[in-house]
């Protein structure tokens, strides 16, 4: 059954001004106009203004958990405020069906000298609960927030975790129809985060709609049915988290969407013919070794992004290490990409696992893949550099993409056979190679 | 299932008519009694929590004010003219009523500022902030009024029984002060200068209103004219006269300016509603 739309955003735009002085002058002009009833076209930019949201179109259905994904400053919080009605739009419209409860900031209006209990009343009222509702839900709130004997102490004596737990507990118990969550799950320990996510799931089953802003892609992927990727106020992509996250990661790395795979089968039209980071797990690993560039070279030493099955290729990486490690492990995979939308279901076509000495500073590593013998198709390179215990990768990520073309048939067995054809491949440093 | 549908467009506030705006704001305030109480509690009661003598400050401030005026009077700096009752008692009452007017103005001017902290985070009707601000002011005012009346009786001046009309008599003052304050509250977010200019002007108005002098013995012709056309002479001075003398010199003008103030107040509500959501985003 088609679910009803609870939030309809149509051609929504919002402008801001970069200079404070000018912004105040425009503000003065705007309120004078609106007070005197002088008509004015809000849909045009004045000098120094920019669109902090431009032409956003989204339909959010009842019971859906919808993600807003984008780098800092991409307009996510502004969009939440427009949905909530705190900021008026400059163009377009927002139609909301039902009561919105915002978690734009937990503990809104908390007074540090008031006790937890008093602040529950204060904050609960701000969020639109009546005194009776607050009293009825008091026990649930206290239990959820796990503040225990601190309940009757001023919240200024709370740890930041307790503060957030209490704020979240109140907000989530105000039982709105639509909840806007702005990056608040990032705080609190893992146990509490899980509890919050469980609560969100429980409420979702009852038909509550969620809009989730998060920089944590695991949360977005775990919670959201759909998400929007925003960049500089624009709606870049609307789709499932699986479709959006790789694009977002690339956007973060490169700061641009040039050559991004957005689900099409074409190879990126890359000027410099390099493999770019397309996916990585945030907050996994130490990032002490940074892969600055990755490229495939043909026998002539030219950079390539596609080659024939029987061609010999070299994988070259420029790394920048802040550490030295004698006993690191390089674990690398060549992954066949099916429809390229689902990283986890990539087939590992081949792998390399070998010891590696890491030098401090910048260096270039060469891995001679020889004649690959890879099957026709598109691939990404998964690269992990672990410490000797395999516990914390110094570096991790997927780089892509390259294409292997069909070669002339040959009776000769080329390459070393898949999978794990390069178990014995040894990475060498380029300067060593030269000597 | 009942579900409210809200549509936000660039001009959704303009589309609401004048009287609908007033009705909406009244409805919002009536529906938000709990919120007003909670905010009042937070800002009024909690403001004294960090001081040793706490609430005693509410009493101390008016007493210090009285003492300074008495001292001025003793040194003979001020030539107030005959006011009919001991001069310090006159000044005390007068400045207390003027203080109420200024308080109403500055509380209203702080309407948007009072939402600081969560005005950008939570959607709620901001007119409740005005009510909270005024409540906070009145709580302080009635306490200091009690102190002042006690002092007054010590000076041998018994207030007229008409003082029980005070809640009605201060309404016009409230309308005028709140009307100015509400507009300044919005304007000061984007143009801090305007509110500074306005506050300075009100400092002059203080001297153009018969607060610390008698309206009947004005030597300067120019000042006399100014005092006569100044609505506050009637709205503030008149209230003071009722308390002290039990009558108002120009009740007719008091009524006229009251009516004007009421209309201005309604207009200011509409203007506040139209403009405030355009400045919220600049409150960072």
Describe the protein in words.
The complex is a heterodimer of chains A (435) and B (284). Chain A has 435 residues and is α+β, with helices and mostly antiparallel strands. Chain A has helices spanning 20-36, 76-84, 116-126, 131-145, 160-173, 190-205, 217-223, 241-254, 430-434; strands at 5-17, 49-61, 65-70, 91-97, 100-103, 178-182, 209-213, 226-231, 234-239, 276-279, 289-297, 303-304, 306-308, 312-321, 325-336, 347-358, 361-371, 377-386, 393-405, 428-429. Chain A has two domains: 5-245, 3-Layer(aba) Sandwich (Rossmann fold); 276-434, Distorted Sandwich (Coagulation Factor XIII, Chain A, domain 1), CATH 2.70.50. Chain A is built from nine helices and 20 strands. Chain B has one domain (18-282). In chain B, helix 3 (56-75) packs across helix 4 (87-109), helix 3 (56-75) packs across helix 5 (127-154) and helix 4 packs across helix 7 (171-190). The radius of gyration of chain B is 21 Å and the shape is globular. The model of chain B has no long low-confidence stretch (mean pLDDT 83). Strand 4 (91-97) of chain A pairs antiparallel with strand 1 (5-8) of chain B.
């Amino acid at each position: 059954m088609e679910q009803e739309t609870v939030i309809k955003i149509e051609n929504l735009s919002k402008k801001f001004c970069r200079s404070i002085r000018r912004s105040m002058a425009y503000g003065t002009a705007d309120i004078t106009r609106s007070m005197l009833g002088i008509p004015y076209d809000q849909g045009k930019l004045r000098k120094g203004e920019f669109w902090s949201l431009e032409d956003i179109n989204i339909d959010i259905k009842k019971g859906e958990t919808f993600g807003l994904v984008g780098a800092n400053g991409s307009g996510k919080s502004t969009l939440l405020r427009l949905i909530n009605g705190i900021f008026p739009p400059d163009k377009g419209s927002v139609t909301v069906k039902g009561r919105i409860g915002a978690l734009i900031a937990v503990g809104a209006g908390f007074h540090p000298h008031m006790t937890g209990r008093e602040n529950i009343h204060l904050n609960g009222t701000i969020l639109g609960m009546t005194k009776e509702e607050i009293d009825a839900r008091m026990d649930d709130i206290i239990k959820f927030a796990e503040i225990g004997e601190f309940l009757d102490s001023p919240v200024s004596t709370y740890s930041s975790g307790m503060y957030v737990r209490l704020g979240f507990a109140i907000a989530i118990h105000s039982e709105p129809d639509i909840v806007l969550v702005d990056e608040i799950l990032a705080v609190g320990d893992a146990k509490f985060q899980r509890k919050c996510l469980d609560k969100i799931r429980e409420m979702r089953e009852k038909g509550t709609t969620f809009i989730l802003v998060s920089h944590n892609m695991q949360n977005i992927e775990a919670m959201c049915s759909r998400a929007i990727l925003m960049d500089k106020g624009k709606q870049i992509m609307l789709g499932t988290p699986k479709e959006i996250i790789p694009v977002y990661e690339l956007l973060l790395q490169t700061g641009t969407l040039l050559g991004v795979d957005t689900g099409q089968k074409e190879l990126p039209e890359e000027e410099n013919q390099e493999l770019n980071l397309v996916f990585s797990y945030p907050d996994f690993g130490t990032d002490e070794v940074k892969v600055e560039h990755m490229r495939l070279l043909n026998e002539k030493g030219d950079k390539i992004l596609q080659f024939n099955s029987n061609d010999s290729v070299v994988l070259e990486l420029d790394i920048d290490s802040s550490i030295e490690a004698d006993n690191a492990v390089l674990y690398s995979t060549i992954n066949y990409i099916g429809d390229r939308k689902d990283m986890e279901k990539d087939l590992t076509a081949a792998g390399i696992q070998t010891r590696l000495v890491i030098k401090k500073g910048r260096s270039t590593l060469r891995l001679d893949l020889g004649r690959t013998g890879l099957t026709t198709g598109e691939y990404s390179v998964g690269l992990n550099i672990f410490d000797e215990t395999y516990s914390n990768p110094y570096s991790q990520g997927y780089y892509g993409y390259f294409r292997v073309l069909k070669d002339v048939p040959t009776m000769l067995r080329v390459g070393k056979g898949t999978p794990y054809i390069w178990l014995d491949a040894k990475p060498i440093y380029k300067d060593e190679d030269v000597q | 299932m009942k579900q409210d549908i809200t549509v936000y467009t660039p001009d959704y506030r303009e589309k609401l008519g004048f009287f609908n705006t007033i009705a909406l704001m009244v409805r919002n305030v009536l529906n938000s009694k709990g919120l007003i109480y909670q905010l009042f509690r937070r800002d009024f009661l909690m403001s004294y929590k960090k001081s040793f003598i706490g609430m005693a400050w509410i009493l101390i401030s008016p007493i210090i004010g009285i003492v300074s005026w008495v001292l001025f009077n003793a040194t003979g700096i001020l030539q107030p003219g005959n006011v009919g009752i001991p001069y310090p008692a006159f000044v005390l009452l007068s400045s207390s009523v003027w203080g109420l007017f200024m308080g109403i103005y500055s509380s209203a001017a702080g309407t948007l500022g009072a939402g600081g902290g969560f005005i950008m985070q939570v959607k709620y009707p901001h007119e409740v902030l005005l009510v909270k601000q005024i409540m906070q002011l009145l709580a302080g005012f009635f306490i200091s009024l009690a102190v002042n009346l006690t002092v007054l009786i010590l000076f041998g001046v018994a207030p007229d029984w008409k003082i029980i009309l005070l809640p009605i008599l201060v309404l016009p003052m409230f309308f005028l002060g709140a009307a100015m304050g509400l507009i300044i509250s919005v304007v000061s977010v984007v143009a801090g200068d305007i509110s500074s200019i306005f506050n300075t002007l009100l400092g002059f108005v203080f001297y153009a209103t018969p607060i610390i002098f008698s309206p009947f013995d004005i030597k300067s012709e120019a000042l006399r004219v100014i005092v006569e056309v100044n609505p506050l002479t009637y709205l503030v001075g008149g209230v003071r006269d009722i308390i002290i003398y039990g009558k108002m010199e120009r009740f007719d003008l008091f009524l006229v300016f009251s009516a004007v103030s009421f209309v201005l107040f309604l207009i200011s509500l509409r203007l506040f509603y139209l403009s405030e959501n355009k400045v919220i985003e600049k409150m960072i």
